[in-house]
Amino acid sequence: MYRYSRSYVGPVQAVILDLAGTCIDFGSLAPIQAFLKLFMDEGLEITEAEARGPMGTEKREHIRQLLAMPRIAQAWSEIHGAAPHEDDIERLYQAFLPLQTAAIAERSELISGALELQEFAHNHGIRLGVNTGYSREMFEVMLPALERQGFQPQSIVCATEVPLGRPAPYMSLRGMIELGAQAVQACVKVDDTATGIEEGLNAGMWTVAVVASGNALGLSEEQFFSLSEVERSQRIAVARSKMAQSGAHYVIDSIADLPRVIQCIQEQLQLGVCP
């Protein structure tokens, strides 16, 4: 029988990846496109910074948090003659679904390093899973593209399939169970949002924050590499500082750097160091 131990000294057993901004959709742009269009259709223009604020949460909750922002709430009241309420949230969510589905279909390309990470995990006996603020229906839209590119996670958990989405730990814990990991200390949660890092911390796992490809920078791959080397370094430094505040154990540019970090975590575990 397995016995829980704070001083776990075994190997890394599972890695749980966020999707958009972490292993697909460089810059995490699909949700942003959908949220900007959603509110534009209501006659209310929101900024990209506002749209990114609740990133990582389940999408209905994302809408709720946007409507709770003072500027947006006031603008909504001026347009609609009343403060936003639950019926508005549900109506917006239903309108959001086709917008998000269309955006996802256009932005399901793997981020460089994803397939190499998958091979690294396979070669080291590490099981690889994903979780996401997308619903199962949204995920199914991107699944054929992931399969065509050769990406095949062994666990997929969507925010609508657990009691609470991020920052609650339930998606990570369900992923851990599906992947057969026997200790939270043996699991690594990787995400490009502070909310996703908090999810991993709440689950008791090692956490790795991704900056260059994700929400903290918010640039497409083309925009990112069009920057001068100096400006790119400066913007990455700002994003790293921001994500370091999430409490992540490690901060990396992209999942291309993750195998090295996993090896560092393995060394820590062998010394009896736990998250």
From TrEMBL:
<dbReference type="InterPro" id="IPR036412">
    <property type="entry name" value="HAD-like_sf"/>
</dbReference>
<feature type="binding site">
    <location>
        <position position="192"/>
    </location>
    <ligand>
        <name>Mg(2+)</name>
    </ligand>
</feature>
<feature type="binding site">
    <location>
        <position position="20"/>
    </location>
    <ligand>
        <name>Mg(2+)</name>
    </ligand>
</feature>
<feature type="active site" description="Schiff-base intermediate with substrate">
    <location>
        <position position="59"/>
    </location>
</feature>
<dbReference type="GO" id="GO:0050194">
    <property type="term" value="F:phosphonoacetaldehyde hydrolase activity"/>
</dbReference>
<feature type="binding site">
    <location>
        <position position="18"/>
    </location>
    <ligand>
        <name>Mg(2+)</name>
    </ligand>
</feature>
<dbReference type="InterPro" id="IPR023214">
    <property type="entry name" value="HAD_sf"/>
</dbReference>
<keyword id="KW-0378">Hydrolase</keyword>
<dbReference type="InterPro" id="IPR006323">
    <property type="entry name" value="Phosphonoacetald_hydro"/>
</dbReference>
<dbReference type="InterPro" id="IPR023198">
    <property type="entry name" value="PGP-like_dom2"/>
</dbReference>
<dbReference type="InterPro" id="IPR050155">
    <property type="entry name" value="HAD-like_hydrolase_sf"/>
</dbReference>
<keyword id="KW-0479">Metal-binding</keyword>
<comment type="function">
    <text>Involved in phosphonate degradation.</text>
</comment>
<keyword id="KW-0704">Schiff base</keyword>
<comment type="subunit">
    <text>Homodimer.</text>
</comment>
<dbReference type="Pfam" id="PF00702">
    <property type="entry name" value="Hydrolase"/>
</dbReference>
<keyword id="KW-0460">Magnesium</keyword>
<protein>
    <recommendedName>
        <fullName>Phosphonoacetaldehyde hydrolase</fullName>
        <ecNumber>3.11.1.1</ecNumber>
    </recommendedName>
</protein>
<comment type="similarity">
    <text>Belongs to the HAD-like hydrolase superfamily. PhnX family.</text>
</comment>
<feature type="active site" description="Nucleophile">
    <location>
        <position position="18"/>
    </location>
</feature>
<dbReference type="InterPro" id="IPR006439">
    <property type="entry name" value="HAD-SF_hydro_IA"/>
</dbReference>
